[in-house]
Amino acid sequence: MGAQFTNRDFPIRVSHAHEPKPPAADLYRYWRSHEEEGYLERHWPDELDHDAWVSSIRKILVRQFPEFVDAEIQYFAKGTFNRLYSLTNPSWEKAYIFRVSIPVEPFFKTESEIATMEYVRRHTSMPIPRVIAFSSSDDNELGYEWIMMEMMPGKPLRKLWATMPDAARVELFAELASYVKQLVALRFSKFGNLYFADVADRVLALQASLSVTTCNGIDANMDRDIGPGGSFVLGRIVAQDFFFDKRIYYSGSRGPFNTTRELVDMRVELLGQRIRNLAPVEGEAWYCENDRELDRNKDRVYELFEQLKTLVSRLVPPDNGPEDVGVLWHDDLSEHNLLVDPVTFRLTAVVDWESVSIVPAYETYDARPAWLSDRDWRPTPLVQLARGVPPNDEFLVADKLRRVGEMGPARLAYHAIVGPLYDTSSPEARQRVKNKQGIAKQLEIASFQHRPWWTAAWLAENGFGGGHAAQAAKPADNALADISNQNRAADQIHGVGKHYAAANS
């Protein structure tokens, strides 16, 4: 691109400031029942007309960047929330990506993602795309928010892993660890998301303050460049457990949160609203098979939820501990979002920074990347059990053991560099962290909402619930097991908890 383009101050916000407005009433159009697993998944409700989209993208770009008049615009890929188009020209030094997003969290998701990427660029050396311009408003020819950024070199790790020598795998994750160590060294006094300071009035709760906690200057990495005089603010959280499906409409705080207990209490509140606001009838807005199964067993589901809610006050103290320090955590450092040079196997980029939040350090599991972790490998969903699919717990255990051998050396190299994020030298600290991680896992979208029987097994295996501990396994042999219309023995499903506990011990 020409000098006029490269000398601009990026990123450029193309959209104009506008008054806060509630989410549109028709956001259900962007969600549908997942064909196999039955939960709500994001989707594009319109038929994709590439010619029309390319024309609209060109109009948007040329109005702001005349240099793009000769751009070759082609459909590139589709992600969970996005459609991507490539912008190229033989005379350019770089190629670009134009990404269009569906409105799952209007304004906030785009604004936070851009600010987060810029914050990481300024305070670490991690290789990430540079954002050129963005619109956090859908008031444009496309009718959607968009981001334009540099196209990074390399291929997704998933395409290269099978052919990589063991030594290259270890070196790759050692390299990633050196960048992650910089990222998690940045500490924060609250939990939420990063935004540019010029939108503070939109993203801070009414009672929130711009003041920061700096530990009397002892920790220079605490709240760096945040608050008065800084370029950024720590504001409203943008995370799936706060906006997924109908949660965007529910009342309650979106932060920033001062304590882990505040954060967890709000997650519990949103989960409670969600399971009591089901759409079990096919054809109605927000319908999904998972809601249908929850509704069929709602009495037991509500009972389980109350047991989980009661546990929070026992397992999550009102005051923060060392494990609760805020860290900016990219929770999807996966085989899709790590780009690698296909020849040297060096890391070329970390992509997909949407919904990257500041969370308590214990929730990062010592900053473990998704690709090296088993945390996202989940048991059979509720809907598949209802269809007669047997539990997959034995498969999960076997595959986790296989991955120990495959991932073990890379895991060791990674954690040797990143190191622990907090002190767990005492048995009390280790138990406290285990309890908090257990609660956090149950509150994930893919846990209680989609697999309440798994929460029942977790409660029983850990002896939670006092006199109700034995009752916690009831879904395995009564109501929730009956959804499969099979007479499973109690220990068949209850064994899921045993296998899961053994695999994570």
From TrEMBL:
Transmembrane segments: none annotated. It comes from the Eukaryota. Pfam families: APH. Residues 73-387 form the Aminoglycoside phosphotransferase domain. This is Aminoglycoside phosphotransferase domain-containing protein. It comes from Parathielavia appendiculata.
